[in-house]
Protein backbone atom coordinates (compact mmCIF):
# COMPACT_ATOMS: atom_id res chain seq x y z
CA UNK A 1 0.00 0.00 0.00
CA UNK A 2 1.23 3.49 -0.70
CA UNK A 3 0.41 6.91 0.64
CA UNK A 4 1.96 9.82 -1.25
CA UNK A 5 1.95 13.58 -1.57
CA UNK A 6 -0.53 13.54 -4.48
CA UNK A 7 -3.60 12.95 -2.31
CA UNK A 8 -2.24 12.64 1.20
CA UNK A 9 -1.16 15.32 3.63
CA UNK A 10 2.27 15.43 5.22
CA UNK A 11 0.73 14.04 8.41
CA UNK A 12 -0.84 11.13 6.53
CA UNK A 13 2.43 10.25 4.80
CA UNK A 14 4.17 10.33 8.19
CA UNK A 15 1.45 8.11 9.65
CA UNK A 16 1.75 5.55 6.86
CA UNK A 17 5.54 5.41 6.76
CA UNK A 18 6.88 2.45 8.77
CA UNK A 19 9.62 3.16 11.26
CA UNK A 20 11.47 0.12 9.92
CA UNK A 21 10.84 -0.72 6.26
CA UNK A 22 12.56 -4.11 6.57
CA UNK A 23 10.41 -5.11 9.52
CA UNK A 24 7.28 -3.98 7.67
CA UNK A 25 8.16 -6.03 4.58
CA UNK A 26 8.94 -9.06 6.73
CA UNK A 27 5.57 -8.78 8.47
CA UNK A 28 3.83 -8.62 5.10
CA UNK A 29 5.74 -11.65 3.84
CA UNK A 30 4.52 -13.62 6.85
CA UNK A 31 0.85 -12.98 6.01
CA UNK A 32 -1.25 -15.82 4.59
CA UNK A 33 -0.93 -16.14 0.84
CA UNK A 34 1.96 -13.67 0.45
CA UNK A 35 4.93 -14.99 -1.52
CA UNK A 36 6.92 -11.74 -1.89
CA UNK A 37 6.87 -8.23 -0.42
CA UNK A 38 8.68 -4.92 -0.81
CA UNK A 39 8.22 -1.65 1.09
CA UNK A 40 9.30 1.68 -0.41
CA UNK A 41 9.39 4.63 2.00
CA UNK A 42 10.66 8.10 1.06
CA UNK A 43 10.07 11.63 2.32
CA UNK A 44 6.79 11.93 0.41
CA UNK A 45 5.53 8.38 -0.09
CA UNK A 46 5.13 5.06 1.68
CA UNK A 47 4.33 2.08 -0.53
CA UNK A 48 3.95 -1.66 -0.08
CA UNK A 49 3.88 -4.26 -2.84
CA UNK A 50 3.01 -7.93 -2.37
CA UNK A 51 2.82 -10.96 -4.64
CA UNK A 52 -0.06 -13.33 -3.95
CA UNK A 53 -2.02 -16.05 -5.75
CA UNK A 54 -5.26 -14.11 -5.45
CA UNK A 55 -6.28 -10.46 -5.30
CA UNK A 56 -8.19 -11.21 -2.10
CA UNK A 57 -5.01 -12.40 -0.38
CA UNK A 58 -3.23 -9.24 -1.47
CA UNK A 59 -5.99 -6.97 -0.20
CA UNK A 60 -6.08 -8.78 3.14
CA UNK A 61 -2.31 -8.58 3.58
CA UNK A 62 -2.24 -4.85 2.86
CA UNK A 63 -5.36 -3.98 4.84
CA UNK A 64 -3.48 -2.78 7.92
CA UNK A 65 -0.41 -1.22 6.29
CA UNK A 66 -1.70 2.32 6.85
CA UNK A 67 -4.77 1.93 9.09
CA UNK A 68 -4.88 5.56 10.24
CA UNK A 69 -4.93 7.06 6.74
CA UNK A 70 -8.34 8.15 5.40
CA UNK A 71 -9.72 6.14 2.51
CA UNK A 72 -9.54 9.07 0.10
CA UNK A 73 -5.74 9.11 0.38
CA UNK A 74 -5.37 5.43 -0.56
CA UNK A 75 -5.42 4.10 -4.12
CA UNK A 76 -5.46 0.35 -4.69
CA UNK A 77 -4.07 -0.95 -7.95
CA UNK A 78 -4.31 -4.37 -9.56
CA UNK A 79 -1.45 -6.41 -11.01
CA UNK A 80 -1.03 -4.38 -14.21
CA UNK A 81 -1.70 -1.03 -12.55
CA UNK A 82 0.86 -1.68 -9.82
CA UNK A 83 3.55 -2.52 -12.38
CA UNK A 84 2.85 0.66 -14.33
CA UNK A 85 2.86 2.69 -11.10
CA UNK A 86 6.30 1.30 -10.18
CA UNK A 87 7.65 2.44 -13.55
CA UNK A 88 6.13 5.89 -13.07
CA UNK A 89 7.63 6.15 -9.59
CA UNK A 90 11.14 5.17 -10.72
CA UNK A 91 10.90 7.56 -13.69
CA UNK A 92 10.08 10.47 -11.40
CA UNK A 93 6.58 11.01 -12.85
CA UNK A 94 5.01 10.48 -9.43
CA UNK A 95 7.50 12.68 -7.58
CA UNK A 96 6.74 16.06 -6.05
CA UNK A 97 9.60 17.40 -8.18
CA UNK A 98 8.82 15.91 -11.58
CA UNK A 99 11.75 13.85 -12.84
CA UNK A 100 13.84 14.16 -9.65
CA UNK A 101 16.77 11.79 -9.49
CA UNK A 102 16.75 10.64 -5.85
CA UNK A 103 13.80 8.28 -6.24
CA UNK A 104 15.63 5.88 -8.54
CA UNK A 105 18.31 5.36 -5.88
CA UNK A 106 15.60 4.85 -3.28
CA UNK A 107 13.98 2.17 -5.44
CA UNK A 108 17.36 0.45 -5.79
CA UNK A 109 17.80 0.60 -2.02
CA UNK A 110 14.36 -1.01 -1.54
CA UNK A 111 15.34 -3.83 -3.90
CA UNK A 112 18.58 -4.49 -2.07
CA UNK A 113 16.90 -4.34 1.32
CA UNK A 114 14.20 -6.81 0.27
CA UNK A 115 16.84 -9.08 -1.22
CA UNK A 116 18.78 -9.09 2.06
CA UNK A 117 15.58 -9.61 4.08
CA UNK A 118 14.56 -12.56 1.91
CA UNK A 119 11.21 -11.02 0.92
CA UNK A 120 12.12 -10.41 -2.73
CA UNK A 121 11.11 -13.08 -5.25
CA UNK A 122 11.18 -13.46 -9.04
CA UNK A 123 7.98 -11.53 -9.78
CA UNK A 124 8.76 -8.38 -7.78
CA UNK A 125 12.43 -8.51 -8.69
CA UNK A 126 11.64 -8.51 -12.40
CA UNK A 127 9.06 -5.72 -11.96
CA UNK A 128 11.38 -3.55 -9.85
CA UNK A 129 14.41 -4.05 -12.06
CA UNK A 130 12.31 -3.16 -15.08
CA UNK A 131 11.14 -0.02 -13.25
CA UNK A 132 14.76 0.96 -12.57
CA UNK A 133 15.62 0.31 -16.21
CA UNK A 134 12.78 2.58 -17.34
CA UNK A 135 13.83 5.25 -14.83
CA UNK A 136 17.39 5.21 -16.14
CA UNK A 137 16.20 5.39 -19.75
CA UNK A 138 13.95 8.34 -18.88
CA UNK A 139 16.89 10.29 -17.54
CA UNK A 140 19.35 9.47 -20.31
CA UNK A 141 16.99 9.66 -23.29
CA UNK A 142 14.87 12.67 -22.27
CA UNK A 143 15.35 15.97 -20.43
CA UNK A 144 12.89 15.00 -17.69
CA UNK A 145 15.42 15.83 -14.96
CA UNK A 146 16.79 19.13 -16.29
CA UNK A 147 16.55 22.18 -14.02
CA UNK A 148 15.41 21.78 -10.40
CA UNK A 149 15.86 18.05 -9.90
CA UNK A 150 15.72 17.44 -6.17
CA UNK A 151 13.78 18.23 -3.05
CA UNK A 152 16.96 19.80 -1.70
CA UNK A 153 17.38 22.24 -4.57
CA UNK A 154 13.64 22.99 -4.57
CA UNK A 155 13.87 23.81 -0.86
CA UNK A 156 16.69 26.27 -1.51
CA UNK A 157 14.76 27.86 -4.38
CA UNK A 158 11.76 28.32 -2.07
CA UNK A 159 13.94 29.85 0.66
CA UNK A 160 15.50 32.24 -1.84
CA UNK A 161 12.06 33.67 -2.58
CA UNK A 162 11.81 34.94 1.00
CA UNK A 163 15.40 35.61 2.03
CA UNK A 164 18.50 37.06 0.45
CA UNK A 165 20.97 34.19 0.34
CA UNK A 166 23.85 36.22 -1.06
CA UNK A 167 26.63 36.18 1.56
CA UNK A 168 24.19 34.70 4.11
CA UNK A 169 24.76 31.96 6.67
CA UNK A 170 22.77 28.77 6.07
CA UNK A 171 22.13 25.73 8.25
CA UNK A 172 21.50 22.25 6.90
CA UNK A 173 20.11 19.64 9.27
CA UNK A 174 21.13 16.18 8.10
CA UNK A 175 24.06 14.79 6.17
CA UNK A 176 22.25 12.23 4.05
CA UNK A 177 21.58 12.43 0.33
CA UNK A 178 18.93 15.13 0.65
CA UNK A 179 21.03 17.19 3.06
CA UNK A 180 24.02 16.92 0.74
CA UNK A 181 21.97 18.12 -2.22
CA UNK A 182 20.60 21.02 -0.18
CA UNK A 183 24.13 21.99 0.91
CA UNK A 184 25.33 22.02 -2.69
CA UNK A 185 22.31 24.07 -3.77
CA UNK A 186 22.93 26.59 -0.99
CA UNK A 187 26.56 26.90 -1.99
CA UNK A 188 25.47 27.49 -5.56
CA UNK A 189 22.95 30.11 -4.42
CA UNK A 190 25.76 32.26 -3.03
CA UNK A 191 25.69 31.76 0.74
CA UNK A 192 28.88 32.87 2.45
CA UNK A 193 28.90 30.30 5.26
CA UNK A 194 27.32 26.90 5.71
CA UNK A 195 26.74 24.95 8.93
CA UNK A 196 25.97 21.24 8.64
CA UNK A 197 24.45 19.64 11.72
CA UNK A 198 24.13 15.90 12.01
CA UNK A 199 23.88 13.26 14.71
CA UNK A 200 27.13 11.75 13.42
CA UNK A 201 29.59 14.64 13.12
CA UNK A 202 32.06 12.89 10.75
CA UNK A 203 29.22 12.56 8.22
CA UNK A 204 28.53 16.28 8.58
CA UNK A 205 32.23 16.95 8.05
CA UNK A 206 32.08 14.96 4.82
CA UNK A 207 29.27 17.20 3.53
CA UNK A 208 31.07 20.33 4.70
CA UNK A 209 34.14 19.28 2.73
CA UNK A 210 31.99 18.59 -0.33
CA UNK A 211 30.92 22.22 -0.85
CA UNK A 212 32.94 25.14 -2.17
CA UNK A 213 32.10 27.65 0.58
CA UNK A 214 33.25 28.09 4.16
CA UNK A 215 31.52 25.27 6.03
CA UNK A 216 31.49 23.89 9.56
CA UNK A 217 30.22 20.57 10.93
CA UNK A 218 28.45 20.30 14.28
CA UNK A 219 26.35 17.79 16.18
CA UNK A 220 22.56 18.05 16.36
CA UNK A 221 22.82 19.29 19.94
CA UNK A 222 24.29 22.51 18.51
CA UNK A 223 21.53 22.92 15.91
CA UNK A 224 19.46 25.41 17.96
CA UNK A 225 22.40 27.81 18.41
CA UNK A 226 23.28 27.46 14.73
CA UNK A 227 19.69 28.26 13.72
CA UNK A 228 19.98 31.63 15.45
CA UNK A 229 22.99 32.42 13.26
CA UNK A 230 21.33 31.31 10.02
CA UNK A 231 19.27 33.23 7.50
CA UNK A 232 17.89 29.97 6.16
CA UNK A 233 17.53 26.47 7.60
CA UNK A 234 16.95 23.40 5.42
CA UNK A 235 15.98 20.38 7.50
CA UNK A 236 16.45 16.87 6.10
CA UNK A 237 17.40 14.41 8.84
CA UNK A 238 15.99 10.94 9.41
CA UNK A 239 15.25 11.67 13.06
CA UNK A 240 12.01 10.14 14.40
CA UNK A 241 11.52 13.22 16.62
CA UNK A 242 11.69 16.97 15.93
CA UNK A 243 15.24 18.33 15.95
CA UNK A 244 14.19 21.91 16.64
CA UNK A 245 11.15 22.75 18.78
CA UNK A 246 9.39 26.09 18.89
CA UNK A 247 11.04 27.23 22.11
CA UNK A 248 14.52 26.71 20.65
CA UNK A 249 13.69 28.94 17.68
CA UNK A 250 12.23 31.78 19.73
CA UNK A 251 14.22 34.94 18.99
CA UNK A 252 15.62 33.64 15.69
CA UNK A 253 15.20 35.46 12.38
CA UNK A 254 15.22 32.73 9.79
CA UNK A 255 13.38 30.94 6.98
CA UNK A 256 13.04 27.21 7.63
CA UNK A 257 12.25 24.70 4.91
CA UNK A 258 11.50 21.29 6.38
CA UNK A 259 11.73 18.44 3.85
CA UNK A 260 12.20 15.70 6.41
CA UNK A 261 9.78 12.89 7.17
CA UNK A 262 8.90 12.86 10.04
CA UNK A 263 9.30 16.62 10.25
CA UNK A 264 12.43 18.02 11.89
CA UNK A 265 10.96 21.38 12.88
CA UNK A 266 8.02 21.80 15.21
CA UNK A 267 5.20 23.31 13.07
CA UNK A 268 4.30 25.61 15.99
CA UNK A 269 7.53 27.49 15.31
CA UNK A 270 5.68 29.17 12.43
CA UNK A 271 3.78 31.23 15.05
CA UNK A 272 7.00 32.89 16.26
CA UNK A 273 7.72 36.40 14.98
CA UNK A 274 10.71 36.37 12.66
CA UNK A 275 10.49 32.63 11.93
CA UNK A 276 9.00 31.32 8.67
CA UNK A 277 8.41 27.57 8.38
CA UNK A 278 7.68 25.73 5.14
CA UNK A 279 7.10 22.01 4.76
CA UNK A 280 6.93 19.62 1.80
CA UNK A 281 3.44 20.78 0.83
CA UNK A 282 4.78 24.31 0.28
CA UNK A 283 7.24 23.09 -2.33
CA UNK A 284 4.35 22.83 -4.82
CA UNK A 285 4.84 26.51 -5.69
CA UNK A 286 8.44 25.82 -6.71
CA UNK A 287 7.80 22.54 -8.45
CA UNK A 288 4.87 23.77 -10.56
CA UNK A 289 7.22 25.77 -12.77
CA UNK A 290 9.54 22.80 -13.15
CA UNK A 291 6.56 20.58 -14.00
CA UNK A 292 5.51 22.97 -16.76
CA UNK A 293 8.97 22.92 -18.32
CA UNK A 294 9.11 19.15 -18.18
CA UNK A 295 5.60 18.32 -19.36
CA UNK A 296 6.66 17.59 -22.95
CA UNK A 297 9.48 15.39 -21.67
CA UNK A 298 7.02 13.59 -19.42
CA UNK A 299 4.92 12.66 -22.47
CA UNK A 300 7.97 11.00 -23.98
CA UNK A 301 8.54 9.09 -20.74
CA UNK A 302 4.87 8.02 -20.71
CA UNK A 303 5.29 6.53 -24.19
CA UNK A 304 8.45 4.77 -23.02
CA UNK A 305 6.55 3.36 -20.03
CA UNK A 306 3.73 2.13 -22.29
CA UNK A 307 6.17 0.11 -24.39
CA UNK A 308 8.16 -1.27 -21.45
CA UNK A 309 4.95 -2.06 -19.53
CA UNK A 310 3.61 -4.08 -22.45
CA UNK A 311 6.88 -5.98 -22.77
CA UNK A 312 6.96 -6.84 -19.07
CA UNK A 313 3.33 -7.95 -19.03
CA UNK A 314 3.98 -10.13 -22.05
CA UNK A 315 6.90 -11.67 -20.19
CA UNK A 316 4.75 -12.38 -17.13
CA UNK A 317 1.99 -13.84 -19.32
CA UNK A 318 4.42 -16.09 -21.19
CA UNK A 319 5.76 -17.31 -17.85
CA UNK A 320 2.20 -17.91 -16.65
CA UNK A 321 1.36 -19.94 -19.78
CA UNK A 322 4.66 -21.81 -19.62
CA UNK A 323 3.97 -22.83 -16.02
CA UNK A 324 0.58 -24.22 -16.99
CA UNK A 325 1.95 -25.90 -20.11
CA UNK A 326 4.81 -27.42 -18.12
CA UNK A 327 2.36 -28.88 -15.65
CA UNK A 328 0.23 -30.24 -18.48
CA UNK A 329 3.19 -31.90 -20.20
CA UNK A 330 4.52 -33.33 -16.92
CA UNK A 331 1.11 -34.90 -16.25
CA UNK A 332 0.96 -36.29 -19.78
CA UNK A 333 4.50 -37.66 -19.49
CA UNK A 334 3.61 -39.45 -16.28
CA UNK A 335 0.58 -41.08 -17.90
CA UNK A 336 2.57 -41.91 -21.04
CA UNK A 337 5.30 -43.56 -18.97
CA UNK A 338 2.83 -45.73 -17.07
CA UNK A 339 0.91 -46.82 -20.18
CA UNK A 340 4.10 -47.39 -22.17
CA UNK A 341 5.47 -49.67 -19.45
CA UNK A 342 2.23 -51.69 -19.46
CA UNK A 343 2.20 -51.98 -23.26
CA UNK A 344 5.85 -53.03 -23.50
CA UNK A 345 5.37 -55.57 -20.72
CA UNK A 346 2.43 -57.12 -22.57
CA UNK A 347 4.30 -57.13 -25.88
CA UNK A 348 7.30 -58.76 -24.24
CA UNK A 349 5.00 -61.47 -22.86
CA UNK A 350 3.68 -62.13 -26.37
CA UNK A 351 7.12 -62.62 -27.84
CA UNK A 352 10.57 -61.09 -27.77
CA UNK A 353 10.66 -57.40 -28.78
CA UNK A 354 13.73 -56.30 -30.63
CA UNK A 355 15.22 -52.84 -30.03
CA UNK A 356 13.80 -51.39 -33.24
CA UNK A 357 10.28 -52.45 -32.30
CA UNK A 358 10.64 -51.03 -28.81
CA UNK A 359 11.83 -47.69 -30.25
CA UNK A 360 8.86 -47.67 -32.66
CA UNK A 361 6.38 -48.08 -29.78
CA UNK A 362 8.10 -45.38 -27.73
CA UNK A 363 8.16 -43.02 -30.73
CA UNK A 364 4.44 -43.66 -31.25
CA UNK A 365 3.74 -42.72 -27.62
CA UNK A 366 5.84 -39.53 -27.93
CA UNK A 367 4.07 -38.58 -31.15
CA UNK A 368 0.63 -39.10 -29.62
CA UNK A 369 1.48 -36.85 -26.66
CA UNK A 370 2.88 -34.13 -28.93
CA UNK A 371 -0.10 -34.17 -31.29
CA UNK A 372 -2.67 -34.29 -28.50
CA UNK A 373 -1.11 -31.43 -26.55
CA UNK A 374 -0.28 -29.11 -29.46
CA UNK A 375 -3.79 -27.54 -29.70
CA UNK A 376 -4.21 -26.96 -25.93
CA UNK A 377 -0.68 -25.53 -25.83
CA UNK A 378 -1.67 -22.92 -28.41
CA UNK A 379 -4.90 -22.23 -26.52
CA UNK A 380 -3.06 -21.80 -23.23
CA UNK A 381 -0.67 -19.26 -24.72
CA UNK A 382 -3.58 -17.34 -26.24
CA UNK A 383 -5.46 -17.52 -22.92
CA UNK A 384 -2.47 -16.13 -21.02
CA UNK A 385 -2.21 -13.26 -23.46
CA UNK A 386 -5.86 -12.44 -22.79
CA UNK A 387 -5.61 -13.00 -19.00
CA UNK A 388 -8.07 -15.89 -19.35
CA UNK A 389 -7.02 -17.91 -16.31
CA UNK A 390 -10.27 -19.93 -16.38
CA UNK A 391 -9.20 -21.59 -19.61
CA UNK A 392 -5.74 -22.31 -18.21
CA UNK A 393 -7.22 -23.81 -15.03
CA UNK A 394 -9.67 -25.96 -17.00
CA UNK A 395 -6.91 -27.28 -19.28
CA UNK A 396 -4.76 -28.20 -16.31
CA UNK A 397 -7.67 -30.02 -14.67
CA UNK A 398 -8.24 -32.00 -17.86
CA UNK A 399 -4.65 -32.86 -18.69
CA UNK A 400 -2.89 -32.97 -15.31
CA UNK A 401 -4.58 -35.36 -12.87
CA UNK A 402 -2.34 -34.12 -10.02
CA UNK A 403 -3.42 -30.48 -10.50
CA UNK A 404 -5.30 -28.88 -7.58
CA UNK A 405 -7.75 -26.30 -8.93
CA UNK A 406 -7.85 -24.56 -5.55
CA UNK A 407 -4.23 -23.51 -6.12
CA UNK A 408 -5.17 -21.51 -9.23
CA UNK A 409 -8.12 -19.37 -8.26
CA UNK A 410 -6.36 -16.34 -9.70
CA UNK A 411 -3.50 -15.59 -12.01
CA UNK A 412 -0.24 -16.72 -10.39
CA UNK A 413 2.27 -14.12 -9.36
CA UNK A 414 -0.14 -11.23 -9.07
CA UNK A 415 1.41 -8.03 -7.78
CA UNK A 416 -1.00 -6.11 -5.57
CA UNK A 417 -0.47 -2.57 -4.41
CA UNK A 418 -2.58 -0.15 -2.47
CA UNK A 419 -1.36 3.31 -3.38
CA UNK A 420 -2.31 6.56 -1.74
CA UNK A 421 -1.30 9.22 -4.18
From TrEMBL:
Residues 300-400 form the Tetrapyrrole biosynthesis glutamyl-tRNA reductase dimerisation domain. GO terms for molecular function: glutamyl-tRNA reductase activity. Residues 2-142 form the Glutamyl-tRNA reductase N-terminal domain. The active site is at residue 43. It catalyses: (S)-4-amino-5-oxopentanoate + tRNA(Glu) + NADP(+) = L-glutamyl-tRNA(Glu) + NADPH + H(+). GO terms for biological process: protoporphyrinogen IX biosynthetic process. Residues 157-286 form the Quinate/shikimate 5-dehydrogenase/glutamyl-tRNA reductase domain. It holds the Pfam family GlutR_dimer. Its EC number is 1.2.1.70. InterPro entries: 4pyrrol_synth_GluRdtase, 4pyrrol_synth_GluRdtase_dimer, 4pyrrol_synth_GluRdtase_N, GluRdtase_CS, GluRdtase_dimer_dom_sf, GluRdtase_N_sf, NAD(P)-bd_dom_sf, Shikm_DH/Glu-tRNA_Rdtase. Pathway: Porphyrin-containing compound metabolism; protoporphyrin-IX biosynthesis; 5-aminolevulinate from L-glutamyl-tRNA(Glu): step 1/2. The record marks 85 as: Important for activity. It comes from the Archaea. Substrate binds at residues 42-45, 95, 100-102, 106. Keywords: NADP, Oxidoreductase, Porphyrin biosynthesis. NADP(+) binds at residues 174-179. Catalyzes the NADPH-dependent reduction of glutamyl-tRNA(Glu) to glutamate 1-semialdehyde (GSA). Possesses an unusual extended V-shaped dimeric structure with each monomer consisting of three distinct domains arranged along a curved 'spinal' alpha-helix. The N-terminal catalytic domain specifically recognizes the glutamate moiety of the substrate. The second domain is the NADPH-binding domain, and the third C-terminal domain is responsible for dimerization. Homodimer. During catalysis, the active site Cys acts as a nucleophile attacking the alpha-carbonyl group of tRNA-bound glutamate with the formation of a thioester intermediate between enzyme and glutamate, and the concomitant release of tRNA(Glu). The thioester intermediate is finally reduced by direct hydride transfer from NADPH, to form the product GSA. Belongs to the glutamyl-tRNA reductase family. This is Glutamyl-tRNA reductase.
Amino acid sequence: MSVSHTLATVEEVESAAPADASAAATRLAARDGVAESVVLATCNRAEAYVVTDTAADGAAALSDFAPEVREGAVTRLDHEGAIRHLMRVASGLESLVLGEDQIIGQVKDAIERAREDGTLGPVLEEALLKAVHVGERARTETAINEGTVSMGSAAVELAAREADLDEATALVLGAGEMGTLAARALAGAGVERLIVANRTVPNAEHVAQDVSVDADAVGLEAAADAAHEATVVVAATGSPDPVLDAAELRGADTVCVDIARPRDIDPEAADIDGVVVHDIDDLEAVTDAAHERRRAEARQVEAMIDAEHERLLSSFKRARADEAIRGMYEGAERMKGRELDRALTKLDAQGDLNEDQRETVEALADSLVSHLLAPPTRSLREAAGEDDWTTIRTAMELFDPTFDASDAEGAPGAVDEAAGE
